């Protein structure tokens, strides 16, 4: 403990701020710098001296000032209280010096001031220095802690970045398969779900159906009757159609023209032949767009009524979009001259459908507002492609020979064109009773009727084209076209007039 010599150094009481003993004649506490009032100090000293004197005079031991106790050698020694205060003073002095050093270091760090050392008091050690106020200490402490806070913040940010990187790196490593696992997964085939398997199977079926060739059998034929009915010189036209699934549904012949339609009984697709005796005119403006040639046509133009139409050249079947007054009206299939593909003047759209001039206006088309299935489309194209000028009719003897020769032919007909044209009475009268009997029933057999008469069933059963499908009760005369009905009536009348043994 530090000892204060009361003999060599007088006291002027104690500091009211820190409790340190005050030396005589000082204005500030040498420990904390607290100002000291001179008069108060002197009064305290005198009071203390008076108390000692009075005690000596009375011979009684007076209470000693709590500040000091005088030893037997006359040297003042610190009391217990003074010893404690001295320790406190030493600690406070050290703390004050530490705060000043920290403030100096903080100032140097913040402002870059070099050479700044611990802040020394302007007063000599024994003269005392002004104490730092609480605000100054707090400011110095805050300044000294600010770099620490900045450093801690930077460290926290860096640590967070490192943690994120570690999580990302090791997280991916944990999710990614090892090289062996990856190889196994790459080499393993993918497992298909049942839905995918079914979809693939359906697609394969569609592809197979698409790849299968479409077979079209044109078993029946039709020959136009405009020249026959009107008894004029004009070529007849003929075309073929499938006997199964197609039927003639509309026939009309007049002096002004002719109209014939064959229809697909499954879906209503209709192929129409139109002959106009005069120019067909309409108010609508029709045109073909997106024209595509899909097949060759059997039609070969020639001379008609001293007019040579061979300059029309070859013909073909086209598929196009029919546009009327700027609005698309569906798809049309038509027979037109190939020259019309480059020069529209070879084709006329006055009727609203493509037609060509052949000493009259001829149109052979299929108009549909819905897309046709592949089978139907191929049948339509085949019907249109078969359109041509009919050959000259055979004479009666030729017809008879043709009928006689066909009786033993397994693929032959007695009258092969009885469904496409009406035979004259002269032609039919040239035939035998048996030929008429077979020819009349041949029309029914062509539609698949089954016969009760064993001889007819045996005869038609030997023909490769015969397909028995309908019993007599199931068969309907609505299946017959106009040519077939007319031929049946004429044959039956001739047989009745002859009293043929084959007539019922």
From TrEMBL:
| UniProtKB keywords | Membrane, Transmembrane, Transmembrane helix
Gene3D superfamilies (alphabetical): 1.20.58.1690
Q: What range(s) does the YARHG domain occupy?
A: 411-496
Q: Which Pfam families match?
A: YARHG, Zn_Ribbon_1
Keyword Membrane present in the record's keywords: the answer is: yes
Q: Does the keyword Transmembrane apply?
A: yes
Query: This protein's superkingdom?
Result: Bacteria
> What is the protein's name according to its record?
YARHG domain-containing protein
What stretches pass through the bilayer?
A: 148-170
Q: From which organism does this entry originate?
A: Slackia piriformis YIT 12062
Region entry Disordered, spans: 177-213
């Amino acid at each position: 403990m530090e000892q204060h010599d009361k003999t060599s150094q007088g006291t002027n009481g104690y500091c009211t701020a820190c409790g340190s003993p005050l030396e005589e004649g000082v204005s500030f506490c040498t420990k904390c710098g607290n100002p000291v009032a001179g008069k108060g100090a002197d009064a305290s000293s005198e009071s203390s001296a008076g108390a000692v004197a009075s005690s000596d005079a009375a011979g009684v031991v007076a209470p000693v000032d709590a500040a000091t106790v005088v030893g037997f050698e006359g040297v003042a020694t610190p009391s217990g209280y003074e010893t404690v205060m001295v320790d406190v003073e030493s600690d406070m002095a050290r703390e004050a010096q530490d705060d000043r050093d920290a403030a100096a270091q903080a100032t140097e760090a913040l402002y870059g001031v070099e050479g700044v050392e611990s802040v020394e008091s302007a007063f000599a050690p024994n003269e005392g220095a002004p104490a730092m106020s609480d605000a100054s200490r707090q400011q110095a402490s805050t300044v000294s802690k600010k770099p620490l806070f900045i450093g801690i913040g930077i460290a926290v940010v860096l640590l967070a970045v490192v943690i994120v990187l570690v999580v990302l790196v090791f997280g991916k490593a944990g999710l990614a398969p090892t090289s062996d696992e990856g190889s196994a997964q790459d080499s393993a085939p993918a497992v298909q779900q049942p839905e995918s398997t079914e979809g693939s199977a359906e697609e394969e079926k569609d592809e197979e159906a698409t790849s299968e060739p479409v077979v079209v059998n044109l078993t029946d034929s039709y020959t136009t009757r405009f020249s026959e009915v009107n008894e004029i010189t004009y070529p007849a036209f003929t075309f073929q159609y499938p006997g199964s699934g197609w039927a003639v549904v509309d026939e009309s012949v007049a002096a002004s023209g002719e109209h014939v339609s064959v229809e697909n009984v499954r879906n209503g697709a209709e192929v129409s032949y139109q002959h106009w005796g005069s120019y067909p005119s309409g108010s609508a403006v029709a045109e073909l767009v997106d024209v595509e040639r899909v097949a060759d046509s059997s039609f070969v133009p020639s001379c008609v009524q001293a007019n040579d139409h061979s300059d029309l050249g070859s013909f073909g079947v086209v598929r196009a979009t029919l546009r009327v007054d700027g609005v698309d009206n569906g798809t049309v299939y038509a027979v037109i001259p190939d020259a019309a593909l480059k020069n529209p003047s070879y084709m006329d759209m006055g009727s609203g459908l493509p037609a060509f001039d052949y000493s009259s206006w001829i149109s052979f088309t299929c108009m549909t507002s819905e897309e046709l299935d592949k089978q139907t489309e191929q049948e339509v194209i085949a019907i249109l492609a078969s359109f041509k000028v009919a050959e000259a009719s055979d004479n009666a003897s030729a017809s008879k020979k043709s009928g006689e020769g066909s009786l033993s032919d397994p693929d032959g007909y007695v009258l092969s064109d009885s469904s496409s044209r009406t035979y004259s009475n002269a032609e039919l009268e040239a035939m035998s009773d048996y030929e008429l009997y077979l020819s009349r029933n041949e029309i029914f057999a062509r539609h698949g009727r089954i016969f009760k008469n064993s001889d007819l069933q045996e005869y038609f059963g030997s023909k490769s084209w015969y397909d028995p499908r309908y019993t007599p009760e199931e068969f309907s005369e609505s299946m017959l076209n106009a040519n077939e009905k007319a031929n049946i009536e004429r044959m039956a009348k001739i047989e009745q007039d002859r009293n043929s043994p084959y007539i019922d």
